[in-house]
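Hey L., structure's done. Input below.
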Amino acid sequence: MPNTFDAVPDLPSERSTTFLPMDRPQERLEQFIKESKLQRGSLRWEDGYTIPFREGGSVRIRVNAGEGVEEGLRFHIKAPTVERREHIEQVITEQAVTDFGVDHVELEWTAEAEPRG
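Output:
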């Protein structure tokens, strides 16, 4: 029987990351997920959440906390196109101001190469 996964084409993937420093990142992320009602579509991980976007793409939010580590949230975006990646970056930047209570935010997004493996 042939492996059906061999028949699935590799789709291009756009990725980017950024870091948002903040105090109490775990508590603030949990509050954000609860208030925004994103828990219904999100996947819960030990260190954060993955939130899918309906039109394609997702953002993985990871908590950075611990001794000797700068506290905050790290955002990893994966999208099918540059346009979708840029849209998700814009949404996350806007939410950093409104939902995380960050007064002034300039998130520097770093585009990443698609992993090969």
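The first strand starts at residue 14 and ends at 21. Residues 9 and 71 are 39 Å apart (CA to CA).

-- N.
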